[in-house]
Amino acid sequence: MQLSDRIQSLNGGGSNGWEIYERAQVLIREGKAVTMLTVGDHDIGTSPEILDEMYRAAKAGKTGYAAIPGTYELRQTVAKRVEATSGVATGIDNVLIVPGGQAGLFAAHFAVINPGDRALHIDPYYATYPGTLRAAGAVPVAVPAHAENGFQPLASDIAAQAPGAKSLLINSPNNPTGAVYSQSTMEAIAGVCQDHDLWLISDEVYEFQIWEGNHITPRALPEMAARTIVVNSLSKSHAMTGSRIGWVVADAPVIAELTELVTNTTYGVTGYIQQAAIFALNQGESVEAAVAEPFRRRRGLMQKLIAEQNVARLVPAQGAMYVMLDIRATGLSGKEFANQLIEEHLIAVMPGESFGAAAAGHIRIALTVEDSKLEDATRRLLAFATSHMG
What we know:
Layout: H1 5-8, H2 19-29, E1 35-37, H3 48-59, H4 72-86, E2 95-98, H5 101-112, E3 118-123, H6 129-135, E4 139-144, H7 155-161, E5 165-171, H8 183-195, E6 199-203, E7 228-233, E8 246-249, H9 252-263, H10 271-281, H11 285-307, E9 313-314, E10 322-326, H12 334-345, E11 347-351, E12 362-366, H13 371-387
Parallel strand pairs: 1-11, 3-4, 3-5, 5-6, 6-7
Antiparallel strand pairs: 2-8, 7-8, 9-10, 10-12, 11-12
Helix pairs in contact: 3-10, 4-10, 5-6, 11-13
């Protein structure tokens, strides 16, 4: 017997990009003191107040089947939040609750893609994007955003790949680059989508981690609400990565069809998790700002340390919980740099090549350890880079 071609081809016959992370896990199990700067998981953990609400809801009996598209209360809470932050009229019929942003990305593409359709995505990209598109039946097509342009995608590059495509996936603030798409960039993207009749799928999980510029949701741009599907979650905004709770926002007919999808796949999200999500969202933006603040501070720390040398160059980190360094001056690829760094110094970072060809020669650092540990690891990393000059 053989497994399906679909399941065996999720990575396109190549790497899934997580080798350094997996190597770090092996070293940790061997008792090595690895500094983990790989994954965007908060060092603070979910707040005790949210966990208390989760516990109360479970004890109160919210452990059985919950409403499949999400409870009325949570959908209403999300709709009010989205309408308040975007200015776009949003009701519960525009909201589907899903088990995390990853599930939302799969669902959104499953809704608009027929098997074999071309689906565009911006490169650099979050490592799971190509596999997610393949899982939904799409042929992923990477559109490069260039380092010399601050990783802002150009309309001309998207338009060149748009003929015959069905969708475009974007992510701003961007993981891994930290780029926040400008008003002009987002308007240009919207123009290409209208000109070529593309669905626009917008991954907005870092919307409240903005250090420079403003978050712009394309759903709020003229003539874009009907063709935009927004994916978001509480993973990054409320340090609830393990709770697996997120949402998809789109026109009501899209949500109605997606409800049929989740009925036949995930069958909803646990009730006590949804109750905790309502509680979390009702705490207001000040809570989200507090969750984001350590990353703002650590980004400043990284800017200061990197300014003290001239080997590794900081890509402008406008948002999200990472910084990306251009290490091409060392003569090493991102993979070579990351592999040598973990073997020689027990510091684990993600090679840029894990996020696409446009990020080659870069590394991504997650700002997810406390400040003094981050400073120590960064100084050692920069010394390692300097030692490879020439």
